[in-house]
């Protein structure tokens, strides 16, 4: 569908690429304007901006993984249940004992690995639509989890709470962790064979297969990364809540919100186009929107209404220019 | 092309999978339920089952329109919530208000579907995101409208459609109004999908939107209609659910996924081009039969979730393998 007669020159302004940055600038501008307008300029410090970001670390970690799933033209709806399961699993294994931190983290990552592997196998070997496969997986995980626990379970020792609460000054460890994770994801996507395979498979699976890429392995790999990220988000939330809550994932709507964030960041649901920095911009936009509502004193219900409209508007912001017929 | 060279036996084999397997599954489940609980074979047993399944069946039939046209409609659950909460506020316990309240609800539903369709067609937002945004927005609207804690109740006139049984009939003894509504709406949706040009155009769009466009199908108009039909069916389901569910802000939660599950159980192909209204209704009945069976087995709620998940994956996996074998 690209215009073959006029290949884009290196210096032309490419709207798709800059749309997330533009949206981010708009959100930042709105934040500053609202803060000045309501006379709350004390919120315009760097420290405050960092604390704004600190509120969406779990979403950010999940969204990094979701980016991989969506880039490979898949989707993962099981992240929310996995987050709940991991947060309960780790806090039950740790049970306040600092010596159990490493086994608990290992168990959490192993659970993520297994769930991602099963998701990937169902999608590639059984050829089940990813939406259905991961939705089914989500029901299975949530069902297994609520069969065992219905309230806060276990406790997280202070040594592990450092992950969520410690930091250098106002810069928390978890925020640094998210930044490192994003850079690592960027490196994998841009500079490794696996990364370029993901774009190839997401862009055109048949073409990728003909080109000799083992498409099933790439899809499974993307799902494993996605579930591993969700497991890490679960670890973070366990550390933050100091205990495992079986409802934490679904309460945060991490499945749908992470998808929304990835799409707002300019990664297209059909796969093969987008990237990690767009997703990061999407996460920041989301947390800025929340802060703007708080500054403006919007009531909780109106906040939800506006949130829905903003998600659609943000995606429309660049999608409206596409000439696709497919919805 | 190769059809002519196929031996006779092979061709007969190819004709076998013509009947949708969902009907066999449904029949097997119903037999299992009757074996577990013979009371189910009595009219009261199966009529109550059909009454409870009716809202989901209508919802699944409506959702099928959007699925066949190649999209998803995640907003139907929130439409149900809005209908139940809104009706209880609007009717204000006044029995005479029933008809205009219902008319208003259908108008709201048409508006929601129209907006969904316009956003998808003209703003080019993927339907997953567009209807997700609508879901979040409508849930917020339901909260705002009711101030967070819905009060009041629905009048008996309003509850008539979901709750009332026509008593003292020969042979079947009772006939729920919900079943009549299901048969009427189900037939209307069947006719629209499988006997009219609109239905053919919806199939064409889901199969290949570009080809449909080149063949002269007004893609946007048809797609918007599909979203409107889905939302209107959600309003109908909401009115019926209002008959036996209480007024709360989470009446509709989860119904969007159940409707998609039901349509998929009925063999609908996600991302469009294939689906059948009777099979989607059978899918909804199957899903409810599974829940009923698990109830009789005395399994707790979490196990139901696990089983639902397993069945969902298995249904699609089996359908995919069949499609590969039959080459269709």
Notes on the structure:
The complex is a heterodimer of chains A (327) and B (328). By secondary structure, chain A is an all-alpha fold. Chain A has one domain (15-315): ABC transporter involved in vitamin B12 uptake, BtuC, CATH 1.10.3470. Chain A is 71% helix and 1% strand. The longest helix of chain A is centred in the last third of the chain and has 27 residues, at 215-241. The mean pLDDT of chain A is 87. Chain B is mainly alpha-helical and 328 residues long. Chain B has one domain: ABC transporter involved in vitamin B12 uptake, BtuC. Chain B has 14 helices and two strands, in the order αααααααββααααααα. Mean pLDDT of chain B is 86; it is low at 1-6.
Name a few traits of the molecule.
heterodimer; A: 327 residues; mainly alpha; ABC transporter involved in vitamin B12 uptake, BtuC; two-stranded antiparallel sheet; 2 strands; 1% strand; globular; B: 328 residues; 14 helices
Overall mean confidence score, pLDDT of chain A = 87
Percent of residues of chain A in beta strands?
A: under 5%
What is the CATH level 1 assignment of chain A? Mainly Alpha
Q: How are the strands ordered across the major sheet of chain B?
A: 1-2
**Through-space gap between termini of chain A:** 16 Å
CATH architecture of chain A: Orthogonal Bundle
Which class of secondary structure composition applies to the elements of chain B?
mainly alpha
Just name the CATH architecture of chain B. Answer: Orthogonal Bundle
Low-confidence stretches of chain A: none
What is the strand tally of chain A? Answer: 2
Cα gyration radius of chain A (Å):
20 Å
Number of helices of chain B: 14
Q: Major beta sheet of chain A, specifics?
A: 2 strands, antiparallel
Percent in strands of chain B: under 5%
| Order of neighbouring strands in the sheet with most strands of chain A | 1-2
Say how many strands of chain B there are: 2
Low-pLDDT parts of chain B are 1-6
Provide the CATH topology of chain B. ABC transporter involved in vitamin B12 uptake, BtuC
Structural class of chain A: mainly alpha
């Amino acid at each position: 569908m690209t215009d073959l007669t006029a290949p884009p020159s290196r210096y032309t302004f490419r709207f798709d690429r800059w749309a997330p940055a533009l949206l981010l600038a708009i959100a930042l501008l709105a934040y500053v304007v609202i803060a000045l307008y309501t006379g709350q300029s004390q919120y315009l410090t760097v420290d405050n901006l960092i604390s704004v970001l600190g509120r969406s670390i779990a979403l950010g970690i999940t969204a990094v993984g979701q980016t991989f799933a969506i880039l490979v033209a898949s989707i993962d709806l099981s992240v929310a249940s996995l987050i709940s399961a991991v947060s309960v699993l780790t806090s039950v294994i740790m049970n306040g004992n600092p010596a159990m931190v490493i086994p608990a983290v290992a168990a959490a990552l192993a659970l993520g690995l297994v769930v991602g592997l099963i998701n990937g196998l169902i999608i590639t070997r059984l050829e089940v639509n990813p939406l259905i496969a991961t939705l089914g997986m989500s029901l299975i995980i949530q069902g297994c989890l609520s069969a065992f626990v219905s309230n806060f379970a276990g406790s997280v020792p202070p040594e592990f709470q450092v992950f969520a609460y410690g930091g250098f000054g106002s810069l928390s460890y978890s925020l640094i962790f998210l930044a490192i994770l994003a850079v690592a994801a960027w490196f994998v996507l841009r500079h490794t064979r696996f990364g370029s395979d993901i774009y190839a498979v997401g862009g055109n699976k048949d073409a990728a297969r003909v080109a000799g890429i083992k498409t099933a392995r790439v899809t499974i790999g993307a799902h494993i990364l996605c579930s591993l990220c969700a497991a890490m988000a679960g670890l973070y939330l366990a550390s933050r809540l100091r205990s495992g809550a079986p409802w934490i994932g679904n309460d945060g709507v991490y499945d749908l919100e992470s998808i929304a964030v990835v799409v707002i960041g300019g990664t297209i649901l059909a796969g093969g186009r987008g990237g990690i920095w767009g997703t990061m911009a999407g996460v920041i936009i989301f947390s800025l929107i929340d802060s703007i509502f708080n500054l403006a004193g919007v009531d909780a219900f109106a906040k939800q209404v506006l949130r829905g409209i903003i998600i659609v508007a943000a995606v429309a912001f660049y999608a409206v220019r596409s000439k696709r017929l497919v919805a | 092309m190769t059809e002519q060279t196929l031996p006779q036996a092979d061709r007969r084999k190819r004709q076998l999978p013509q009947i949708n397997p969902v009907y066999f599954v449904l029949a097997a489940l119903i037999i299992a339920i009757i074996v577990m609980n013979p009371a189910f074979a009595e009219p009261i047993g199966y009529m109550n089952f059909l009454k409870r399944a009716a809202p989901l069946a209508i919802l699944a039939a409506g959702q099928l329109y959007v699925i066949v046209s190649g999209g998803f409609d995640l907003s139907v659950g929130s439409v149900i919530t809005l209908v139940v909460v809104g009706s209880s506020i609007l009717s204000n316990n006044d029995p005479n208000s029933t008809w205009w309240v219902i008319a208003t609800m259908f108008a709201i539903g048409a508006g929601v579907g129209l907006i969904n369709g316009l956003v998808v067609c003209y703003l080019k937002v993927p339907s997953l995101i567009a209807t997700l945004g609508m879901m979040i927005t409508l849930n917020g609207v339901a909260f705002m409208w009711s101030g967070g804690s819905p009060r009041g109740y629905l009048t008996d006139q309003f509850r008539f459609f979901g709750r009332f049984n026509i008593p003292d009939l020969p042979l079947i003894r009772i006939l729920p109004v919900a079943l009549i509504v299901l048969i009427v709406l189900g037939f209307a949706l069947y006719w629209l999908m499988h006997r009219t040009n609109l239905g053919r155009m919806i199939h064409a769009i889901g199969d290949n939107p570009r080809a449909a466009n080149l063949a002269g199908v007004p893609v946007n108009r048809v797609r918007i209609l599909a979203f409107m039909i889905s939302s209107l069916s959600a309003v109908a389901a909401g009115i019926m659910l209002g008959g036996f569910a209480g007024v709360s802000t989470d009446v509709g939660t989860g119904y969007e996924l159940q409707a998609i599950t039901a349509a998929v159980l009925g063999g609908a192909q996600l991302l469009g081009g294939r689906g059948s209204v009777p099979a989607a209704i059978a899918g909804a009945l199957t899903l409810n039969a599974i829940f009923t069976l698990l109830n009789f087995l005395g399994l707790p709620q979490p196990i139901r979730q696990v089983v639902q998940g397993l069945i969902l994956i298995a249904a699609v996996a089996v359908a995919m393998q069949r499609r590969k074998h039959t080459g269709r």
